[in-house]
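Bug: token stream looks shifted between consecutive jobs. Job 1:
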Amino acid sequence: MMEKILTISIAAYNAELDIKRCLDSFISTNVLEELELIVVNDGSKDNTLNVAKQYEKKYPGIIKVIDKKNGGHGSTINASIKEATGKYYKIVDSDDWIDPEELEKLVFWLRNNDADLVLTPYKCVNADKIEDFELIYPYDAMMEIKKITNIEKKSNIIVYMHSTTFKKEVIKRMGPIIDENCFYVDLEYTIFPLYYIKNFVCLDYIVYQYLLGTDEQSMNIKNMIKRRNQHLKVVTRIINYYSDKKRTLKEPVQEIILNRIHSAILSQYKIYANMEPKESIAEVKKFDMWLKQFPELYTGAQGRFMKIIYLNRATRFMFYAPIIRILKIMHLEPKI
């Protein structure tokens, strides 16, 4: 049996309509024997398990199914980390897929090189019009492609879940510590391993195809409002993690983590802003008061909407409700 170069963790919950497209995108590659596809059935109530089992039977030694009770995305990551045997580890959601030719390029590079963190661009695909897409790059134009860089060197990179591929040893050292029964844990998954990496590389292979615009998606604003306390739980944990580890982190790593934390903080304020002001005012004030104990985070998030937050801090949120109402009337609610 060939050495497994890349383990793919696929979280599947009620995914019988999507999982075939996801798995078929891997099966059509020329590097299938070098892949380990771990499908974690997270207590699905539909036919997901049977579909995944059929693929497991057809592709033994390549596809492995873990069947467990429902525990959320974090629990599927934790479960697959324990089982992963590939040289590298990557997450792909069951409603997303990969570009086979781009994956082949990535696997070839992973087979012949060593870097703790591999960053690749990804494609955001519109669910309503599949030919509409946007490319997201986790690095700026100044980064040198295919050059392995020491993590202590200052660089402009962003660790999006869809862009990251970690060395298995890094993930194993982190361990199965992702929060369970909680959405938005991709923030934890991309931040926690950074404590253990020594270098990274930027590649230009557009591997991940990320589906956007479905009603079920966790990033749908209605779902984010409904699950805002889960988002807050994750924001709280990554802030506490950074606070605990800061003194042992090199400055460039601190900056990478701060970038993600500032974005998460901004998203939390935006979630509140998309609610009715009378419902959100107490929550936003409580969050703002808690955040104040971390000065560099309290004033670190930027953007046009944060200027509204900074203004409200100066007035003790006296004008928060009328400002949010005006934004709603003008259909200018902040997008996440």
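Job 2, same session, no restart:
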Amino acid sequence: MANLSYKSSGVDLQAAEAATKKIASLAQATFNKNVLKGIGLFAGFYEIDPKYKQPVVVTSIDGVGTKLKIAFMMDIHETVGQDLVNHCVNDIMTSGADPLAFTDYIGTLNLHPDKIAAIVSGMAKACVENQCALIGGETAEMPGFYAPGEYDLAGSIIGIVRKDEIIDGSRIQAGDVIIGLPSTGLHTNGYSLARKVLFDIHKIDVAAYVPELQMSWGEALLKIHKSYKKAIESVRRHPGLAGISHITGSGIEGNTRRLLRKGLDLSIDWNSWEMPREFRIIRALGDIADSEMRRTFNLGIGLALIAHKRQTDAILQVLHDQGDDAIIIGEITSSDT
């Protein structure tokens, strides 16, 4: 038997080192004065700014689901890195927090430094846009675990909020108004159903131009998950704002109900905006019931703000002034349960 090595077993340490060098330079471009150490140690270091009185750490972890399958099919890998960061930023900012630091995990069958660098370049771009430092991560080569050419991707974010500025929905009351902000597409949810309809049932070519969309399905499905950081920053301290819901899996109703205490419910006016074309095509091709569409996809609304009725116009004005196409999509109601 020939001498065995780690490389012959499927783990290429030289490729790992090459990938780490590429990642380090990308990550360092996101650093600010609060990042105390570079990439390469066993942990990242972030100094908390003393401006935060009674600071509360806010954290979340997520992935981008089977949207990765579209990235594999199109051989485009930068956008899923942006998706991951933006999704996590939105999640913690629903509580009023500022994003501070981000770490990632990439697991794959074989390490290809250029592909890893493409993924991380997307994360770094989004971190810069969201003023969040990419301070570390893990890249794992796992022979026999993943399919060739595929990888898994996850990210963890740390944010901070003053204790007296936490937004948790506790001030929501019956009669409050639900304001919707548009999504850029599917964002990072509903891809298993979309892929089933488009590629398994109808055998559509992911790269073929679709006149109704003015792009290919691959391009439409890889539209970047929108960051709502600027919108949230503009209204999070407004006295009329009572809650923020990031519309991900479970749709508008499922996510917004997470904020509601016993005795409250919501009513969505599904005719208050036009469902974007990609959702309408998927619904028609799959003969999908409206109830299933509503609990699977965001249907064109990526963020919901709950505002006290008397102050709704003021909040809408703030959002419109900075270019957000915010609209009223429903209201909070009383419930017997």
